[in-house]
Known about the structure:
Layout: E1 2-7, H1 14-23, E2 27-32, E3 43-46, H2 66-76, E4 81-84, H3 86-93, E5 100-102, E6 110-118, E7 134-141, E8 145-147, H4 150-158, E9 162-166, E10 177-181, E11 187-190, H5 208-216
Parallel strand pairs: 1-2, 1-3, 3-4, 4-11
Antiparallel strand pairs: 5-8, 6-7, 6-9, 9-10, 10-11
Amino acid sequence: MRVGVVQFPGTNCELDVMRVVEALGGDAELLFHSDASIGSVDAVIVPGGFAHGDYLRAGAIARFSPMMDAVAEFAHSGGPVVGICNGFQVLCEAGLLPGALQKNAGLKFVCRTVEVRVETTTTVLTNQATVGQILRVPINHFEGNYVCDDRTLDALRTEERIVVRYVANPNGSLDDIAGVCNEARNVVGLMPHPERASDPLLGSDDGLVMLRSLFASVVPA
């Protein structure tokens, strides 16, 4: 299992993600934003941080990187792609996921552990979880307030594409949405950081069920 972890100028969670991937028995490979190929990886994670300083809008510059063209091609071919926090913002800006992330309600940066509820187990990030399972996972963001138009929200609900919801909404996100997937269910974005919930000594290892789901989603060649 080879997992590509995309790095932009300003990314700051890539090493955390790589450490957990390797702890689970995978091989982690750094994919630099200016490269035009993902190589031979089996899955891609776009980690958190502040890509290009989050100038203009979070993820708005990063979506034009050559690497994102390669990630989009991989996603359209069915490859598993996960965006965490800033990575979620990048995937929305790139059109790989619907909606957008705007500034938190109250215009405050939020950094704490929250509870999220698994709403579907038919995605690359939740296939090892159970519907209704509550996971304790940290958040760390200023622009995590998920928004979309009414038509998109209806589709997300009808097609069960809301992957996780906040138990107690920390940022004003529409319909308590903490993460969504695409129609094919192989691309998932979420604001909480599962890689930071990978060791009970740090408060929780609930994020491991998500990362193990990503591993389980890869079909052996």
